[in-house]
Model the fold of this input.
Amino acid sequence: MSLFRLSLVILFAESFGYKILIYSPQIGHSHVNFFGQIADTLVEAGHDAVLYVPAFYEEVKTTGAKLARVIERPLENKLPYDVSDVLPGTWTEDGRGLVQVFTVMIGMAGNIKPHCDMQLADKKLMDRLREEKFDLGITEVFNVCGYAIFHNLGIRTHISAFATNIVDVISSGLGVVNNPSYVPASFTQLSDVMSYSQRLENVISYSTTFFLFQLLVRPYINFNHVAPGFDIDKAVESSAFAFVNSEEFVEYPRPINHKIVFIAGIGVKQPQPLDEEYERIMENAKGSVVLVSFGSVAKSSEMPSKIKDAFVGMFARFPEVTFIWKYEKDDDVAANVTNVIKKKWVPQNDLFGHPKLGAFITHGGQNSVIESTNAGIPMICVPLFGDQMRNAKVAEKRRVAFLLDKRFISSDSLSHAIRTVLYNQTYGESAKRLAQMIRKKPISARERVIKYTEFAAEFGPFDNLNSAGVRLNFFQYYMIDILLPAAIILMLFTALSALALIRLTRLLLRFRMENKQKQE
Done:
């Protein structure tokens, strides 16, 4: 964007736009980028979007924004849980277990509380933000500190957001129904079409996750001592809307309500021309090019030797394919395989725009799946942890991904996946068709962010979209208070009817016997 155009945008924002505070702690690159993209989109629309970015994990240094005003806050005290302590062994442990999931959730919640306490107790910071007189706030649902800050600042209208897909354990506060008979739990690798045993697994997973969240995580997210009168349940329920970083044409169809607004792809940029080095790599490739990248957290260089050997063995079996491998160290791995190019960083989105890129080997992170589906590139997914399992499964259902289990990675399984995705036209055709559907949606993600934010700022706070179901208890919500008495009445009626029938039968038999005796 030119300096002149940027100046016009800022001038317009100061004159006519809304003032919007976006809370974006540095808990992960994908989360920070998601909220930074929302902020930049609103600035381009003429609003004064301020991105408040408190430091959280040392590994995350970026703010995710290029246009929005940014207020950063350093972390003065180290948080109790280090990211390396709470994340399971990326390559060695089964990331699907509830124990691993809750280790992360408790670690995150255990960090959020002291992190939030420090911010709310920072009078200078709170006064600075309060002087801005914001019209609206936007915060992630899971990181509940944003709601407490909005409460302290007197921001009466806010929008919730998921940097992932809809997370079931916290979406119920928005009135979203999570029916485990066909809505897979957030941390499972199940489809929406399940067998009896899979539905049982899904019910157990959802119920366990929900109750453990209430028991173990909820105690960490009470901020009444620093934000008097704050109620997290009311804060979530009173959200004007909820932005979801998920693509409705990829995601499983499921019950939602009028608050849910899908905005996946908000930050997907048009691929730019490759630099000279990468352009030469692509043009010199004999056949297809395959990108191998496992994101910013899972590093290929930290793979166990067995998995590295499996990848190197697979690379050697396809000399006609060029593999660009995001690999973070200088070592001798794959040094003798001439069709492998190791890079510590890759221009992923720009590579997606090149016609020679034939497939993408990925961990199935939300942003990677979104970028790949927007570009029409088929995937080979090796999910490692958390929602990556679900992301990979739904991509498999759309026939745009081949799913592999990291526990059973071998040269044979990888070779079969490459052969299937590259040489079976189904995957490429499905990926291109899905990308066209996303591209031609009636209302783009960018338009949704702008229009729903402006609507909330103009008319909020409002309760028109609040679901009455949020305030029902378990027995009322599932109509147990109606069905149980009805079942008891039905059983009593059945029992009484059976008893009456038995007595009537006995009476008739006795009458018949007496008549027979009289006749004799």
In short: Residues 478-519 form one domain. The first helix runs from residue 3 to 16. Residues 496 and 502 are 10 Å apart (CA to CA). The chain has 19 helices and 13 strands.
